[in-house]
């Protein structure tokens, strides 16, 4: 046998029995080694995303503090850029260098590592992450601001009661 038993056990005496016992022990050893190697590789796999803590993350506040500089973008002339420009002018100034014309271009450049982060409306990003066929997108950090959505209807609309009932 490959391994001696810790307790008294009858070892197989025949050649065929010993051969099958050794094959079984070898199979168990290979299976266990393969499982252990896969488990270790899974546990130490390096994530390829930046775990941003939110809008106050140091990489957004001072993107040139490390090399290469942290690259992040948004869609210009939208609510996200306007909000950043008004409340965080330094972040908005750096972000303007990497602005993308639309969300599709922003996500494409994020997937190809041309930018490190894409800042946009959280609801839209959550939808895009959920529908990403490659599963390469992830939203990180805290939401910066919470805004509500409204439904506008003309006065006396026949839809008002149905919509209110659904909500």
From TrEMBL:
<dbReference type="InterPro" id="IPR001320">
    <property type="entry name" value="Iontro_rcpt_C"/>
</dbReference>
<keyword id="KW-0813">Transport</keyword>
<keyword id="KW-1133">Transmembrane helix</keyword>
<keyword id="KW-0675">Receptor</keyword>
<feature type="transmembrane region" description="Helical">
    <location>
        <begin position="23"/>
        <end position="45"/>
    </location>
</feature>
<dbReference type="GO" id="GO:0015276">
    <property type="term" value="F:ligand-gated monoatomic ion channel activity"/>
</dbReference>
<keyword id="KW-1071">Ligand-gated ion channel</keyword>
<keyword id="KW-0407">Ion channel</keyword>
<feature type="domain" description="Ionotropic glutamate receptor C-terminal">
    <location>
        <begin position="2"/>
        <end position="167"/>
    </location>
</feature>
<keyword id="KW-0472">Membrane</keyword>
<dbReference type="GO" id="GO:0016020">
    <property type="term" value="C:membrane"/>
</dbReference>
<dbReference type="InterPro" id="IPR015683">
    <property type="entry name" value="Ionotropic_Glu_rcpt"/>
</dbReference>
<keyword id="KW-0406">Ion transport</keyword>
<keyword id="KW-0812">Transmembrane</keyword>
<protein>
    <submittedName>
        <fullName>PBPe domain-containing protein</fullName>
    </submittedName>
</protein>
<keyword id="KW-0325">Glycoprotein</keyword>
<dbReference type="Pfam" id="PF00060">
    <property type="entry name" value="Lig_chan"/>
</dbReference>
